[in-house]
Amino acid sequence: MSTGQPVLGRPAGARGEQTRRRVIAATMRCVSEVGYSRATIREIARIAGMTSGSLYHYFPNKSELIKSTFLEIAAITVPRLSAAAEGADGVLDKLMAVFDESDRLMREYPYAAAFDRAIRAESAGHLRLAEESDTIFSSFDEVMAGIIEQAGREGMLGPGVDVATAAAAILALMRGLYDHAAASPGDYHATMGAVKLLVRGTLFDYTRLT
């Protein structure tokens, strides 16, 4: 998904792009570990394995670096999750595809959720990143709501469950998973596996439940 703003600081050349991505990854890690206000260009450069002076060739200041990192996450994650849903046919398959793609994204970008939580909590107001984050969530919510609406049309919802209630439950589940990824990234993958079983109805052995 595009947020309507350009991704800043993009240098020319393959080597420059590789360095830029390394800086982006280091920014995610640094902000997720110490927060927005305490993250410094010097520390980000250290994590990226370069000097502060070299980093300034890619990003003119901390604000632009943080904003570029945020936009990079948005440009990667939402399109991939949307494509995962669109590439599957049935409602359950769509949900499983989104869960699987979310799991892959968290493996590839383990600091992304914590980075997002940090900037939502304390980023400078002029960056408007908290508002941007809400917009990204809204775009993803539309994807998930569309899946639940399909379930309603196909008569796949349980007795007494309407589309709005089911959509709210699934969206709350996804938001909870996102927060879990920020707080406990090491546990996220096992939790996602359990969530998939829950949605499939196989998390519990119902023959033993009374």
UniProtKB/TrEMBL annotation:
- What domain of life? Bacteria
Q: Which InterPro entries match?
A: Homeodomain-like_sf, HTH-type_TetR-like_transc_reg, HTH_TetR, Tet_transcr_reg_TetR-rel_C_sf
Sorted alphabetically, which keywords does the UniProt record give?
DNA-binding, Transcription, Transcription regulation
Q: Which residues bind DNA?
A: 40-59
Known Pfam families for this protein?
TetR_N (PF00440)
Q: Where is the HTH tetR-type domain?
A: 17-77
Q: Which PANTHER family match?
A: HTH-TYPE TRANSCRIPTIONAL REGULATOR BETI (PTHR30055:SF234), HTH-TYPE TRANSCRIPTIONAL REGULATOR RUTR (PTHR30055)
User: What name goes with this protein?
Assistant: TetR/AcrR family transcriptional regulator
Give the species this sequence originates from.
Actinomadura rugatobispora
